[in-house]
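Kindly inspect what follows.
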Amino acid sequence: MVFEFQPEYILGARLSRSARRVVRVALGDVEAGAIAPSLSRPNLAGPEEVSRKVVAVAHALGGASGPFGLLLPDAAVRVTILDFETLPPDRKEQEALIRWKMKPLLPFPVEEARLSFEVGPKEPDGVEVVVMAVRRSVVAEYEAALDDLSGDVKLVLPSAAALLPLLTEDAQAGELLMNISPTQLTAVVVKGRQIRLWRNQATNGTSAAEGLAGVTEEAVRTLAAAHDQFGLEIDRLRICARPRAAKEWADELCRRASRAVESLAPDPWAVGTRLTEEEGQLLQEFGAPIAGLVANAA
């Protein structure tokens, strides 16, 4: 069972045992301000409300037992790409070095960080490491929202990271992924499965449609950074906008950014099984990160 937490809603999905199909989907709205993503501050201003909503979503999925996966708002997780000339082979020594380098990049003591990292391939000029850091107390808040359920949390990811398996693994020019919500915008430059750039910013509570100018501005900045820093000529934008952006909105972004734009809207009948029509619509409208987890398991 997977729960995605966003300031506007909690999305739940029950996956098959192989995690290759979605068998149930449910969505619960949350009160404004109950979930307030932050790197360093408490995220759940209304923990009781969030916990009740999690239980309601779990029951709608047909059960209350795990294991569980948590997809957190992008703004709750710091994602950074670090450069090293070389790294020691021992994983613990790698983590110690990464923690030392992350210390000035976090708005909380690095000792309080829950880290995960992936070491990229060795290049002539060194090696890149993608680091995801979340404050332990923040993770504990989201995990506590599941206290009335039975089971352990086995997976914690930022929402945008779950979208990465939906990208084209052999894209030679690289791709720009944009994860867009009424409150947050994350832009990720990817070549193959390698993250080259990750940027997150607030959108001041505007809707996806109202924030078109801001999204376009960020797209243009990120495209320029990808060219200047990595020599990548990205010719396609992949967007996940929830609520889903109108086709006219995507067309306008295409015109302004001078790039092809494709929405990451999963085909519910390709990734789901025995879904009701309502569940299929929910999966298509909100479930792109869930579809990414399914694609990763395939």
